[in-house]
Amino acid sequence: MNSKNVVQVKNIRKRFGKKAAVQDVSFEIKKGEIFGLLGPNGAGKTTILRMMTSLLRQDAGEITLNGYNTLTQGRLARQQFSITGQTAAIDQDLTARENLIIFGKLNGLHRDAARQRADELLTDFDLVQSADQTLATFSGGMRRRLDLAVSLVGKPALLFLDEPTTGLDPRTRLQMWQAIRKLVAEGSTVLLTTQYLEEAEHLADRIALIDHGKMIVMGTPTELERQVGGMQLRIDVTELQAVPHVQTIVQTVLGESVQTDGRTVTVLLNQTEMQQVAQVLAQLQSTQIPLNHFAIETPSLDDVFLKMTVGKN
Amino acid sequence: MHDMSNIVTMTHRNLLKTMHNPDSLSDVIIEPIIFTLLFGYLFGGVIAGSVQAYLPMLVAGILVQSILNAASGSGQQLREDINAGVFDRFKTLPIAPIAPLAGQLVGDILRLFLSGVTALATAFLMGWRPTTGVPMLMAALFLAIFIGWATSWVFALVGLLAKNAELIGSISMILILVLTFLSNAFIPTKTLPHFLQAFVRVNPVSLTITAIRTILQTGSWGSNATLVFVSGGVMILIFMPLTILVYQKRD
Fold first, then answer.
1. Which of A85, A252, B17, B96 could make an SS bond with A93 (beta carbons 3.0 to 4.6 A apart)?
2. Using a CB-CB distance cutoff of 8 angstroms, which residues of chain B are in contact with residue A83?
3. Which stretches make up the ABC transmembrane type-2 domain (chain B) (predicted)?
4. What pLDDT is recorded for position A1?
5. Residues A58 and A195 grouped into a single domain
6. Residue A299 has pLDDT above 80, yes or no
7. Do the chains contact at B92 and A83, CB–CB below 8 Å?
8. Which ipTM did the prediction report?
């Protein structure tokens, strides 16, 4: 076993009746990493997470957290992580402070330590003003912040976040991202599920794209973008009759097949061709063909997402 | 020891919830008051000749009915907690798996106590005077709470198995109504048709009421009380492990 891998998921499967919810998913998460499980609604992200947190038993396969098997060493495995779910799992009838203190005590802190930790978290999550009100008066964003704060009470080395920012306003989302980054900076490992590409791109070191219970692709955000076809050169020509001329120049310089669509000329680039793009520009300049747009573009994760999951939903 | 402190924390949580939300206690307080008043003033004259003469009989019936009603709340509260997702988080904590369940059931003792005391206090205000000393009065209350607590494990099990909190509430209410009305709680049973008398005789609620009535009227514990106490113990021995098992296997 590699001690650097905090999480190991090996060939897990889960069926609900006739529906295969998760099919043969495997991945590993290294210490200090933010790992994103990305996928559309109903892809199986939450089911995977529920199995990892031993709330649900997988039909086949093995999950270990810090080396503890979630099936055979459930109690030890559960002590390795903290989780924040999609709905705020906090007591509505208690105040924010009481919620934090009680979870502090349940995490093994003594009374004074639990109080102190509660104060720290209330400050961190901007909840001091409403600390002693019951949650009935809290907004959705405040609940989610408190929910994350409760997860952090025990300073977990491993944190699972199930769609931590779904339905939050942009400001609260940024606050959540900051809190997550801060935690990772202090040495924790985070697994998060999200349906927002932007979130995965911003936060995650590595992303696994899940759809229909299957792992479609896994890698760093940059790797995933490259999978779609690397960089591309896009030229928008001002006059339609100049398009064949531009096409010839690009083809001659780069030696690649060039696509045209109306006034737009595009070509996929590999690393060596990057150097020659300047030459294309120089030749176009000397012929004085007017251009509207000349750009080297990376396909966004949106392209990855749509390309990999398109037509299947 | 660690497990004990988890249970204490969980009980504390349940008591805090009750304090912030005193409405949750209204059923265990209002129900005994209403039933004691209603039955006392409506049926006192018919059944025993006067309210005063009826109260010594009624008080044991009301006490047991109130306690059972309070006990039924545990299943409903447990289900509401589970549906709210809080219990999933408890499951991922490094605590004794039984602690959240135990917290609920230890906290239930307060509900049982309050409802029992309210029933006795209402009867007292209506003119009932216990003929036994305080120790035997406490013994009767203790027996009622004990049997109520044993029953709350059954309701907790129902709460874990059924998914809908409202359904649990209404089934519990119907069950308690049938079991208490078809018992010796409020009426002398000798005027009942024979098939009903047979049911009333085997109804465990009747047995419990007889035991408590004996303590309150004679001031002595009696063999019935011992039988009820042992039955309660057996119920706990069966339903506590069963409930815990279902709680831990819950997906």
1. B17
2. 89, 92
3. 23-250
4. 45
5. yes
6. no
7. yes
8. 0.76
| Residue A82: inside a domain | yes
On the question of pLDDT at A311 being above 60, the answer is no
- Determine the structural domain holding residue A278 and report its residue range: 231-297
Q: In sequence order, what are the residues at sequence separation of 6 or more whose Cβ sits closer than 8 angstroms to the Cβ of residue A110?
A: none
Predicted confidence (pLDDT) at residue A2 exceeds the cutoff of 60:
no
Nearest to B9 among A75, A102, A134 (CB): A102
Whether residue A303 lies inside any domain: the answer is: no
B89–A89: do the CB atoms touch at under 8 Å?
A: yes
State whether B5 and A105 contact (CB < 8 Å).
yes
* Contact criterion met (CB < 8 Å) for B94 and A88: no
Tokens of B203: 């109804």
Report CB contact under 8 Å: B16, A134.
Answer: no
Q: Which of B89, B95, B98, B248 to mutate against chain A (most A CBs within 10 Å)? A: B89
Low-confidence ranges of chain B (pLDDT < 50): none
- Position A156 pLDDT exceeds 60: yes
Distance from C-alpha of B76 to C-alpha of B168, rounded to nearest angstrom: 6
* Domain shared by A273 and A186, yes or no: no
Q: Is B90 helix (H, G, I), strand (E, B) or coil?
A: helix
What CATH number is associated with residue A210?
A: 3.40.50.300
pLDDT at residue A113 in the model: 93
Residue A309, domain member (yes or no): no
Rounded to the nearest 5°, which phi and psi values hold at B248?
-75, -30
Structure pTM? 0.73
Number of structural domains chain A divides into: 2
Determine the pLDDT at residue A28.
93
**Does residue A118 form part of some domain?**
yes
Distance CA A21, CA A28 (A): 20
CA distance A237 to chain B (A): 58
Residue of A nearest to B22 (CA): A93
Q: Between A168 and A310, whose confidence is greater?
A: A168
B230 near A CB under 8 A: no
Amino acid B226: pLDDT: 94
Whether residue A266 is predicted with pLDDT greater than 90 in this model: the reply is no
pLDDT of residue B95: 82
Number of Cβ atoms within 10 Å of the Cβ of B12: 17
Query: Which residue from B minimizes the CA distance to A56?
Result: B251
CATH number for A256 = 3.30.70.100
Which 3-state string (H, E, C) describes A61-100? EEEEECCEECCCCHHHHHCCEEEECCCCCCCCCCEHHHHH
Q: Taking CB atoms and an 8 Å limit, are B97 and A105 in contact across chains? A: no
For B186, the 3-state DSSP assignment is: coil
